[in-house]
Amino acid sequence: MAENLQSSSNDNGYQESTPKRSKIHHQDEQESSPDRLSALPEHLLVEILSFLEMKDAVKTSALSKTWKHLWTHVDKIVYVFDDRQLTAKLPEFISFVHRTLMQCTCPNLKKFALSVDDYHYHHELLDEWLQWVFKKNLKFLKLDLIVEGYCFPEWFYHNSSLVKLEINMNNPWWYNGEESVSWPSLKSLQLSYVSIWDGQVATILSGCPVLETIVFRSLDVIGSLNIKYPSVRSLKLIDLSDDGFLESLEIDAPFLKELEVLGRDFIPCFRLINVSSLVYAKFDYTPESTLVDCNVVWPEAAAKLLENVSCVKELVLGPIFIQTLSLLTLLSVPFPLLKCKRVKIRSPLMYYELLGIVCLLNTSPDLDTLIIEVVTPVEKLWLAGYVSSFSDDIIRTYLDGNEDYEWELTKNKSCFEFGFVKSCDKSTNSL
C-alpha cells in the first residue's frame, strides 16, 4: 500500500515546498537584521510548529536549514482536508498524509487528529496510520471522518496510552459490541454521529476504569445508559436523535456530578432514574420549530426532569425551559421544590417568559444567586403560539400581587447577576 503512494509536486498546498519568494526591497538591510525566531532553542520552535496543521508546519522547511527538519519532531499532528468542492484532490491529500506521517520521529505523540469530509479511500491505509500513531504512545486521538462500511480493528480497542478519544465517524457500525475494550488511561470519551446501545456502553465503560467525562453528540441511543462507575463525573448529551429512541432512554448514574443536555428541536422525554450525586445540571434547547403539538408531553417531561435534579447546587436553564415553566404555571402542572443555591437563566426576557422566572423563584427558597444572560430571540418561539390562547389578564394575575425581591445587581456585558439580600422573605416574591 505504501509503495503505491508516490510524492507529487503540485500547487495544492499538500507538499513539502513553497512558491519562490518575491524580491523584497532593501534586501541587504533585511539580511543584516537578526532572525530572532530562528534563534530560539530548537525545542521551542518545535513546540510552535506543534500548534499548526501539518500542511503549514511542513511548509516551514523552506525557510532555512534550521527549519528544514523541525516539523518531523512535532508531537501534535493535525491533518484537515478542507477542499470540499475539490474532491479530486483527495488522493493528493491522502498521499501527503502518508508521506509526511511516516517521516515524523517524535517517540511520544500528544495528539493525532484527522479530519476528512468524504473518506472513500482504502480502509487498510487508515488502519496503518492508526497503528503507527498507537506505537508512539498517543495521548489524544481525534477522528472526524465520513466513512462507510468501516469498523475499527480489534487492536484499536486495546491501548494503554490514550487519555482522550473523540470519534465522529458518521458510521453506525463503528463498534460491533463484541470486542473487549481496554483503555486503562482514558479519561475523556466523545462519540458523535454513531449508534450505540446499552450493551455497548457497558462494555466500553468496563474497560475504562479512570474515565471521567463522556460526551454523546447526535447519537441514536438505544436502551439505557447505566453509568455506575464512581470515576465518571460528567455526562454531556448534545442533539440526541429523536427517532423514538428517547422515549425508552433511561439514565442511571448514581455517581455523576455534572449533567448537560443540549440540543435542537427535540423533546427530552428520557427519564433520569438515579442521579442522586448531581451538583450541576444544564438543560438548554434551541428550537427550530414551534413544537406546538408537544405542548402537553413536553411540560410534564420537563417537570419530571427538574424534580430529578432538584437537589443540585447549580442549575442552568435555556430559553425553551423558561418558556416551559411559564406553561407549567398556566396549565397548573405541579412544579417541584428546588434546593438550588445558584441558577443561571439564558433568555431573551420576553413578556410571557416572566411567568417561568417567577415560578422558578417561588419554588427555590434556598436560592442565593440568579444570573440572567440576555440572548437574542429566536424567530419561532416555542411557547408563542400556545400561550396566545390565554388572555393577558390571566397572565398578569401570575405576575402581580406579590412583593418584589430586593436585589444586589451586577451587570457584566449581556449578563445580569442578582444576589439576594438575606433579610428578604423569599416565600412571597415575584419580579
Automatic annotation (TrEMBL):
Domain of life the protein comes from: Eukaryota
Pfam family, one: LRR_At1g61320_AtMIF1
Residue intervals of the F-box domain: 34-81
Chain segments carrying region Disordered: 1-36
Compositional bias per record (Polar residues), positions renumbered to this chain: 1-17
PROSITE patterns from the UniProt entry: FBOX
InterPro entries linked: F-box-like_dom_sf (IPR036047), F-box_AtFBL13-like (IPR053781), F-box_dom (IPR001810), FBL13/AtMIF1-like (IPR050232), LRR_At1g61320_AtMIF1 (IPR055357), LRR_dom_sf (IPR032675)
Gene3D superfamilies reported in the protein's UniProt record: 1.20.1280.50, Ribonuclease Inhibitor
CDD domains documented for this protein: F-box_AtFBL13-like
PANTHER family for this protein: F-BOX/RNI SUPERFAMILY PROTEIN-RELATED, F-BOX_RNI_FBD-LIKE DOMAIN PROTEIN
Descriptive protein name: F-box domain-containing protein
